[in-house]
Amino acid sequence: MALLYSSPSLSITSPNYRYYPSRRLCLYPITATHVVAPHLIDKSSLIISETSSEDQLWAAACLRVRSFHEFKPSTFGIQDHKRYLAEREFEALKERIAGKRTGFNRVSCLNATLPLSQLLSLFDDDLCAQCKFRENGEDRVVVGTLDVNQCTNLPDEISGKKPEGIEGQFARGYLSNVCVAKELHRNGLGYDIIAKSKAVAQKWGITDLYVHVAVNNEPAKQLYMKSGFVYENDEPAWQARFLDRPRRLLLWLGLPGNQNW
Predict the structure, then answer these.
(1) Is residue 71 within 8 Å of 28, Cβ to Cβ?
(2) Residue 190, SS3?
(3) What pLDDT, on a 0 to 100 scale, did the predictor assign at position 168?
(4) How far apart are CA 69 and CA 89, in angstroms?
(5) What is the C-alpha to C-alpha distance for residues 117 and 42, in angstroms, rounded to an integer?
């Protein structure tokens, strides 16, 4: 199963923030061939919520780095490079949420979190060290994250067609940077956080919700389609070659309030 559910947008791997690694850094994109044995969890203590807490945003940025990239263990300066990527995503995420990026009406970071104590009982992993934060006197870990974007289009991505006209400025939205910690796949966390994102989008008045996904990412396509998304369009091959990435599909979901829902 792939380690990420949507092609990252506006983040550490977006062409807007593209990083060209040196030969020594050996940064590899995650592919669907990386399979990790899942750990079953007790979801009674799972919390999925919007956040603007800097500690939690930092934990989310760290999860995105470890989800969207794989590093060769023997790589020189690997920890410094991971921190550099996390810092860049952290600052970009804060700017998007604060409304400092043009073209966005609103952006929210949704995180799925679990108590640190529960995860430590399952495995001794760097997920707990890298993605933990403290809130209300409790140590928790970000185990899933995504962005909800209220906008007409995302930079360097094909745009949705619904709704048309000026309504599209406020009633169209996109999910981006969707990922779940690889150790916790097959626990339904992807479905849970997407369900929450639908509620947030509907609260904002979004009637047409979109997500981009690589054509070869079968687990992600299955997740989105089971969540109600359907095919609308696909990226031209020339655009994918120009941006040096796998070609992407654009999936659409009509939310309550949409006349076609």
Answers:
(1) yes
(2) helix
(3) 76
(4) 13
(5) 12
Radius of gyration of the chain (CA): 18
Pairing of strands 138-150, 172-180: antiparallel
Q: State the residue for tokens 């403290």.
A: 134
The residues, any chain, with a CB within 8 Å of residue 165's CB and separated by 6 or more, are: none
**Pairing mode of beta strands 47-51, 27-29:** unpaired
Convert the pLDDT of each residue in 155-198 to its tens digit: 999 999 999 888 778 999 999 999 999 999 999 999 999 999 99
Q: Which helix (H) or strand (E) holds 109?
A: strand 106-115
Separation of alpha carbons 177 and 155, rounded Å = 14
User: What span, in angstroms and rounded, lies between the C-alpha atoms of 18 and 91?
Assistant: 15
Task: Compute the half-sphere exposure of residue 108: CA atoms within 13 Å on the CB side of its CA.
Answer: 19
Q: Which two structure tokens, joined as six digits, stand for 136? A: 């209300």
Query: Which pTM was predicted?
Result: 0.84
Is the separation of the CB atoms in 107 and 148 below 8 Å?
yes
Q: Can you read off the two tokens belonging to residue 63? A: 């999860």
The DSSP secondary-structure symbol of 77 reads: T
What the block records as the tokens of 246 is 């796998």
Ramachandran angles phi, psi of 180, nearest 5°: -130, 140
Token pair recorded at residue 171: 């009633």
Active site annotation includes 224: yes
**Phi and psi for 153 in degrees, rounded to 5?**
-160, 160
Catalytic residue, from 20, 191, 224, 231: name it: 224
- What does the pLDDT look like over 232-241, one tens digit per residue? 999 999 999 9
